[in-house]
Amino acid sequence: MQTKSSPNEIQSFLSDASFIREGHADRVVLPERVEEVAEILTSANRNHVAVTVSGAGTGTVGGRVAFGGIVLATDKLNRIKRITHEYAVVESGVILSDLQRAVDQEGLLYPPDPTERGCFIGGTVATNASGARTFKYGPTRNYINALKVVLASGEVLDLRRGEVRADATGRIRVGTIELKLPQYRRPATRKNATGYFVAPEMDAVDLFIGSEGTLGVICEVEVRLLPKPEGLLSGVVFFADEADVLALVADARARGDSGGGARALEFFDQESLNFLREKYPTIPANAVGAIFFEQETTPANEEAVLNEWMSLLDQHHAFPDSWFATSEQDQARLREFRHQLPVLMNEWFARYNQRKVSTDMAVPDDAFPGLFRLYRETLRVSGMRYTIFGHIGDNHVHVNILPRDDTEGARAREIYVEFLKYAASVGGTLSAEHGVGKLKRDYLRLFYTDEQLREMAALKKALDPNGILGRGNIFSEELL
């Protein structure tokens, strides 16, 4: 096990894509085995030392930004242990893109596909990550068979889906600890990564998925694999009228809900296209919006699927010079186009030394048109640059408000709170995929009552009585 303590050595472990810059820690430890993780936590728990779990640093909400104590970095827990035709067993520090490549070579697919593929598998589990393919496949939770987790006490849990479930009263035994689950209801959104997952008679595995490093340290994961699709049709389709974009989305979503449509459906507004033109000058000059889509095909239905999309696009007045791909090389180029915008947004925040102001809310289907109108109308009169893009098929688009100085930064956060209040009022969720971390914890009260937050905090206290894990993530200190 390696330990780093000099400021120069540990600095890279104290930040993430949230651009919170005040992090600090006494040292960083890099265990190589589960037993070493247990030793670290046993000692830290005995001495009441805070432990912040560090993955790849791709998170956007400050989850791995430590404020004291030690950082437990999972970089050296990086072995792909086994791949079969149904599942893979990997350690938490395995990079997502490495796993995807490895299973692809076996003719298999691991569906979760967050934007940043340099993330660690453990981090995707800790945040219940999703991404473009969630439109068809759902989030990471759907693909976790088993977890090896170390609790704050040092107790090692081997949890397999289906073996331990809560009873009808919400009581569940996790290792040696008896828990009473919170009784709040999850929002009726297609995606949710806000607070601890609860459901009637839920599985113990699900307690740790999306827990953001606050309940235990995820060390090993067994993920479910699917057969690799035989073929894929993808496209980036441009429009001269935003109304046509939204009408297309409604039709494409209906096809997806019936089981016969796209696996990814992503939106780009006019401001997003303006940013992307810096790298993609062939974007049509009069395009005011675009959709990126992917749909799986077989040799038997490839022509029919293409014809269906051509008919749909013609019906909604898509540009004839839009981009389409069927080969893997061309599909990779379109996927790179889709992933380029978040990179440009992060470069903006870094250039102007501003904290990220980016929405991650999702709302129920019938509430999305109102939220989208609020985004568009508020931002157009704000005087600031912004982009609206992302997972429109799941009623979940990301708004990046792009301040250039502290005054604009303050106004951007005021606008952000306006958006949050609206999402809460229509039954939405604070975070659809990135989690709460430290950046968004103060907004939980807009979405949960004080009693519900106390229930959530009581669950953490039962598993982590000394409050050493992920201190500052999800909860503000007064709740613990």
Question: TL;DR of this structure?
Answer:
The chain has helices spanning 7-10, 34-46, 96-104, 121-126, 134-137, 204-208, 242-257, 270-276, 302-315, 328-351, 368-380, 406-425, 450-463, and strands at residues 2-4, 27-30, 51-54, 70-73, 80-83, 87-91, 108-109, 144-150, 156-160, 171-174, 177-180, 217-224, 226-227, 231-239, 264-269, 289-297, 323-325, 385-391, 396-402.
What is the annotated CATH architecture of the domain at 231-425? 3-Layer(aba) Sandwich
Number of beta strands: 19
Mean pLDDT: 94
Give the C-alpha Rg. 22 Å
Structural class: alpha+beta
CATH homologous superfamily descriptor of the domain at 231-425: FAD-linked oxidase, cap domain/gating helix
Largest sheet composition: 6 strands, antiparallel
CATH topology of the domain at 231-425: Vanillyl-alcohol Oxidase, Chain A, domain 3
Strand order of the largest sheet: 17-14-16-15-18-19
Gap from first CA to last CA: 31 Å
| Global outline | globular
Helix percent band: 25-40%
